[in-house]
Write a structure and sequence with these properties.
CATH architecture of one domain in chain B: 3-Layer(aba) Sandwich
Strand order of the largest sheet of chain A: 3-4-9-6-8-7
Largest interface: A-B, 26 and 33 residues
Number of helices of chain B: 7
CATH superfamily of one domain in chain B: P-loop containing nucleotide triphosphate hydrolases
Oligomer: heterodimer
Radius of gyration of chain A: 32 Å
Number of domains of chain A: 2
Number of strands of chain B: 10
Helix content of chain A: 55-70%
Bound molecules: adenosine-5'-triphosphate, magnesium ion
CATH topology of one domain in chain B: Rossmann fold
Distance between the termini of chain A: 36 Å
Strand content of chain B: 25-35%
Strand content of chain A: 15-25%
Strand order of the largest sheet of chain B: 6-7-8-3-9-10
Helix content of chain B: 25-40%
Distance between the termini of chain B: 22 Å
Structural class of chain B: alpha/beta
């Protein structure tokens, strides 16, 4: 143990109250930072997972053919890009050759699954109620590979659906409104025909737009109902690393000649909301840390003032300016270390506690508890912020202490 | 009293008053600002050789402490030289002066300045920590030895604030000797001590000078103590008035 550390420790211990105040300040700042980051990033992550588990990482839609040479625009303003060049392109709705395009997409190393979807609208009719719905024709195994559908089943089961050609999967909200139970039958009407189906299972994604309107049919049934014997409305693609969806979508567009939309592009509005939330709560809590830094500055400045005589004595017996500086930086470091560890523990405890608070959220995702995200990075960033604040708070008093001329101080405190 | 033989075995026994270890030339020092500015040291020159104990006497306020701070490199004179072992350090950089204070100078303040957070032994060990030449166990042993020399063998682990004024003063003397300095400057080290302890402290410093060739300066009002020294200079209004052997009592 270095003598400077020893002296620093004794100085600190002699100021127990001021020290525990700054310690508590640092610990609270660190803990709250961790807690708010865990929450906001928890909800963000959960939302993204919901997107990836429902509408997928990438959706491949209409085919385009360039009739003029177009600029290779970067994908920032996608909608603007499309309108501006509409005249120059020929559009073919949907994916005409899903097998060929799907095979091309499966060649991408990051692609883990491709599901062909035929969709259209219909009216769902029971003896007592009627409602318009979106019909999604899928190959179950393909679609399970690109979504979390298996996990989203809340009543009934998938083998029931698999084994019954007239079986359907319906959203929980739709089932509630139409008062449909597993095993119930209903009619699906299109302008030119009406077919009868049975509820095999009910799913819940938590996304209201989906849960109240979407019905999954076997692909062949959907083709017959919607009179689309071939082609697909779109292909849903899942990725091993969804973070790369933007780049992969761009490559798919060039390779497959179809518009491809990444989840980041489709959900930009919500993602921005979550990001803003995370940054603003981070800033708020960083302010708490800053304020506790002021408390610490106060404590160290006070110790410097009260200890000028001791500092002068140390200087008189040969302690160098840098030794004195180190004594005060050590004091900051001790409070920082203790405060950070306490803050980490408190932050983890609070995060755990909050994750146990029941809260029912439906609409953009489904959860019955506060969502938290456990990430090391929150703990490290909290420490880095605290360290920066403490370093500044300790450096200024430390420098002041080191500058004192021993003779001057001793002469003035002798009388 | 036997002064132990610790880590300096270089410079031999009682040296003759050859080259002075400590000397100053034409020291001037002003204190205060503006109207209150006082010319405290008015051209002081002094040589202290190895093996000499020098008493400095003079009325209160004549500048004895100010002189000692200048000699101990705690304060910078406005003019003049301070030579430590031949080298003028009056205007030297802070690093050199700080190192010299640690290695070559032991200072006893007029008002005993111990660090209140530390025990008696730890206070004595503080200069040793900085020097870092001894192993911790040896530092501890040497601190114990020095405290015994000043009659505080039984008080080693007591916190500085729990010691009487006289005890604190003796700890300060032990601390000044911690790194076995070649120069000891003591500003009224016996002010709070009874006759017996005062004599013991002075005898310790005298023995140090005689047996180990150290230069010792003691500021004192006490003629009995001055009489035990080799030399006595008296100060008046920032000047040296008289210099010579102390009058025998
Ligand atoms: N900060 C200061 N400003 C102005 N004058 C000062 C200051 N400090 C001390 N003095 C003056 O300097 C003179 C010398 O002071 P010093 O402490 O050296 O005296 P001294 O001889 O040690 O006295 P004593 O025997 O009482 O300790 C005194 O007259 C004192 O009033
Ligand atoms: Mg004095």
């Amino acid at each position: 143990m270095s003598p400077e550390f020893k002296i620093a420790f004794r100085f600190l211990v002699s100021k127990k109250r001021a020290m525990s105040m700054s310690l508590a300040g640092i610990a609270c700042g660190v803990a709250f930072f961790i807690l708010t980051q865990a929450q906001t990033s928890g909800f963000e992550r959960f939302y993204i997972d919901t997107i990836l588990g429902t509408t997928g990482a990438i959706q491949v839609h209409d085919r385009f053919q360039d009739t003029l040479r177009t600029m290779d625009a970067a994908g920032r303003e996608r909608s603007g890009f499309r309108i501006a060049h509409r005249e120059a392109r020929q559009y073919v709705e949907g994916v005409e050759e899903p097998a060929r395009v799907g095979a091309a997409i499966r060649e991408f190393t990051n692609v883990s699954g491709v599901s062909e979807v035929v969709s259209g609208s219909a009216r769902l009719r029971t003896p007592v109620r009627e409602r318009s719905v979106r019909v999604y024709g899928i190959r179950l195994e393909d679609h399970l590979a690109v979504t979390e559908l298996a996990r989203q089943i809340v009543r009934g089961d998938l083998p029931g659906f698999r084994g019954s050609p007239q079986g359907v999967l319906i959203g929980s909200e739709l089932a509630r409104r139409m008062q449909l139970q597993v095993g119930d039958s209903f009619e699906l009407d299109t302008p030119d025909q009406s077919r009868r189906y049975r509820v095999s299972a009910v799913y819940e994604t938590g996304v209201r737009d989906i849960d109240e309107a979407r019905i999954f049919l076997h692909l062949g049934e959907a083709r017959s109902l919607l009179r689309r014997p071939f082609g697909a409305s779109f292909l849903q693609v899942s990725l091993r690393d969804p973070g790369r969806a933007v780049q992969d979508a761009a490559r798919i567009e060039t390779v497959a000649g179809h518009f491809a939309y990444s989840w980041q592009e489709r959900e930009r509005a919500w993602i921005e909301v979550f990001r803003a939330l995370r940054v603003s709560s981070g800033l708020t809590v960083a302010t708490i840390i800053l304020i506790s830094g002021l408390g610490m500055f106060n404590m160290l400045a006070m110790i410097v003032m009260e200890k000028t005589r001791e500092i002068a004595i140390l200087r008189s017996m040969g302690y160098r300016r840098q030794d004195i500086r180190r004594i005060f930086l050590w004091q900051g470091a001790v409070v920082l270390a203790a405060g950070t560890i306490l803050g980490w523990l408190l932050g983890a405890l609070l995060t755990f506690g909050v994750s146990r608070i029941p809260i029912r959220i439906r609409g953009i995702f489904a959860t019955d508890y506060f969502v938290v995200n456990w990430a090391w990075s929150h703990y490290i960033v909290a420490f880095l912020i605290a360290a920066a604040v403490v370093f500044v708070a300790a450096w200024i008093p430390a420098r002041r202490a080191a500058r004192l001329e021993p003779g001057e101080v001793i002469r003035n405190s002798a009388a | 009293m036997n002064v132990e033989t610790n880590h300096r075995s270089d410079d031999g026994g009682p040296a003759a008053n050859a080259a002075p270890i400590l000397s100053c030339r034409g020291l001037h020092r002003h204190l205060g600002e503006g109207e209150g500015r006082v010319h405290v040291l008015r051209g002081i020159s002094l040589d202290i050789g190895a093996g000499t104990v020098c008493a400095v006497a003079g009325p209160s306020g004549c500048g004895k402490s100010t002189l000692l701070y200048a000699l101990g490199l705690l304060d910078r004179p406005d003019a003049g030289e301070v030579r430590i072992e031949g080298e003028n350090l009056a205007a030297a950089g802070d690093a050199v002066r700080t190192r010299t204070r640690n290695e070559s100078i032991g200072f006893v303040f007029q008002f005993h300045f111990l660090l209140p957070e530390f025990s008696a032994a730890e206070n004595v060990m503080l200069p040793m920590y900085r020097l870092g030449r001894l192993a911790p166990r040896d530092m501890r042993r040497r601190a114990g030895y020095l405290l015994e020399q000043v009659g505080l063998g039984a008080r080693q682990d007591r916190l500085a604030t729990r010691l009487s004024g006289g005890e604190q003063q003796r700890v300060a003397v032990a601390r000044a000797l911690a790194n076995d300095p070649s120069i000891v400057l003591a500003d009224e080290p016996t002010g709070n001590l009874d006759a017996h302890n005062a004599r013991a402290v002075v005898d310790l410093l005298v023995a140090l000078a005689r047996e180990r060739g150290r230069a010792v300066v003691i500021v004192t009002h006490n003629e009995e103590i001055a009489a035990r020294c080799d030399r006595r200079v008296s100060m008046l209004d920032g000047r040296l008035e008289a210099d010579g052997a102390p009058p025998a009592l």
